[in-house]
Amino acid sequence: MLNVKNITFSYNPKHTETPVLKDLDFTVEQGDHLSIIGESGSGKSTLLKLIYGEYDLNEGQIFWKDNEILGPKYNLVVGYEYMKYVAQEFDLMPFITVEENVGKHLSNFFPEEKKERIKELLNVVELQDFAKTKVKTLSGGQKQRVALARALAKQPEIILLDEPFSHIDNFQKQSLRRSVFKYLKEKKITCLVATHDKEDVLGFADRMLVLHDSKIIANDSPQELYRNPETPLIASFFGEVNMLNDQIIYAHQLQAVADSDLKARVVQNYFKGPNYLIEAEHEDAILRFEHPTALEVDLKVFLKILER
Ligand SMILES: Nc1ncnc2c1ncn2[C@@H]1O[C@H](COP(=O)(O)OP(=O)(O)OP(=O)(O)O)[C@@H](O)[C@H]1O
């Protein structure tokens, strides 16, 4: 189990500024998948780096099982055998091939096993066809996949992923995500994923931690946070939201009907694929709702609030 005990951290060595993270306290069970979300600059990457032992904490402690994770003040070399961290910058070796990068830290004593392992990992990240390609010639998304495979090579107990699919194109993202997260679950590798993308969370994460103003404002299952978001910030991670009489209403919860007390005037349409997102004016505020077709600007519509 990962145990993050009341940690506080600021980059400023004199600790004079407001800390980036303050009094964070949470645990992650072995084999669980935790998503870390929050606005840009809320400290997601910093949290992963602290768990990796890259910085010294101002206050608090972090444990993986019984081992305390210590910062550079106490640990000459950053990092532990049982933990891997895939940062937003990949730090690969450009002049050697994909398979050499992936196998970099694997033992040469068992060449057959090593070959098989590299093959398995390249399958997980869907890079089978690039085994012999030099990394310097790869695209950003391909490099990101090599970095993932390399981090998995020695089967860590826990992996920290910072925006793991940010460079991957939409054509491959879905299948790669399924492949990597399925692999981590099967191998019971605990995983912490900092992400902006709800698709990385829904369907994969056991829990979701929301950072805001240096604090954890929510730590629950994605299902629970989706159904009962306590703040518009949490709800807006899942989709477009409206505030109506201090209630959080998702855009898909508003339905155009023949008649209701909620009247609005259409001002804008956005094509979203399966439907349109319609913006409509209601008492000087803009409401957003989904509709199967585009609606004429200035059309008066009546809206009904559906259950979540
Ligand atoms: N090395 C650093 N030195 C000083 N301040 C830093 C450093 N790295 C990050 N920060 C600051 O710490 C805060 C949190 O940054 P962090 O990168 O952890 O946020 P994030 O949530 O991961 O953002 P993003 O979603 O944009 O990646 C920001 O205000 C950032 O400017």
TrEMBL record:
Q: What SUPFAM superfamilies does the entry give?
A: P-loop containing nucleoside triphosphate hydrolases (SSF52540)
* Domain ABC transporter residues, every copy: 2-238
Fetch the Pfam families from UniProt: ABC_tran (PF00005)
Listed InterPro entries: AAA+_ATPase, ABC_SmlMolc_Importer, ABC_transporter-like_ATP-bd, ABC_transporter-like_CS, P-loop_NTPase
Q: Which UniProt keywords apply?
A: ATP-binding, Nucleotide-binding, Transport
Gene Ontology terms, MF aspect = ATP binding; ATP hydrolysis activity
Q: Which PANTHER family match?
A: SPERMIDINE/PUTRESCINE IMPORT ATP-BINDING PROTEIN POTA (PTHR42781), SPERMIDINE_PUTRESCINE IMPORT ATP-BINDING PROTEIN POTA (PTHR42781:SF4)
Name of the protein: ABC transporter ATP-binding protein
Q: Which organism is it from?
A: Gelidibacter salicanalis
